Please model this.
Amino acid sequence: MRHHEAGRTIRLPGLLLCIVLAPLLFILGHAAAQIAPADSNAVAFSYGFLELDDPRVVADANGVAMLTFACFGEDDNLLWTRGFASIDAWCTYARNDPNLSAQKTEQTGWALCLGDEEIFWPLQALLYICPSVRDTVAAIESRPLVYDRFARAYKSPHIEFTDGENLCQQPSATVLWNPTITRAYGAPVAWDTFPPLVGLAHELVHARQRVVEDKQIYGPVLQIDAMKDENLARYAFYRRVPGNESLRPRPGNKGYYRNGEFVAYFEDVEWSEWSPSFDPVLDIFEDEP
Ligand SMILES: [Zn+2]
Model:
């Protein structure tokens, strides 16, 4: 810029204002929209993972669809996409992205993770992959404390890591999640293998059953809704997360009785035979007479 040229110095301020202020106002407008958790209508951005057959999905160097995180503006118009090699890679990114992490303490799932980011970010990935889990988590967080009548103490429903089985301690709505578990029974069927976050989605349903439906004691009948919602998560992974081509719906718990004899495992069901209203079958199931 030649500031010594009188003719230009006069025009510069106006030009500068346009150049500098326009993007600044744009950014501020969006930032302000994001920093308004009290008014959900003011949130201009939403995020989600695209389905792998979406033409807007990011492809890797070999042309293969990647796990694709997308940001949408008001009117659900696509603002940007970003491809990831894995859910872990997304977690590292999200944790360090100020837009996603600035209000983390106010986001759905923070209370349930007791502020442990090693659990919080994988949970966030699950919420973006399968949005219906967000409602489950929000329902659990609607009550900060439940009374554990066996421990005779108030407990905060929460998720913690375990080296053992995935389970929900029903009286206190404590979810124990093992992020390395990808099989339930070692059964020779495709449905017995699943992503670890699907196991978490299942246990979260039991925590919701405790908090919302007051199911303080575990019973097999609780499995129906848990497996039903688990299948929503399975379908979301099948549609959105690479590497889950062989993932199948869960047709039932473990096995069932036929003519009084225990049949070990359910046969695989294809996604074309499944819908969200599909009711998985419990272990104890006798043939109709
Ligand atoms: Zn269960």
About this structure: DSSP finds seven helices and ten strands in the chain. Residues 202, 206, 223, 226 surround zinc ion (CB under 6 Å). Residues 6-34 form the longest helix (29 residues). The first strand starts at residue 46 and ends at 49.
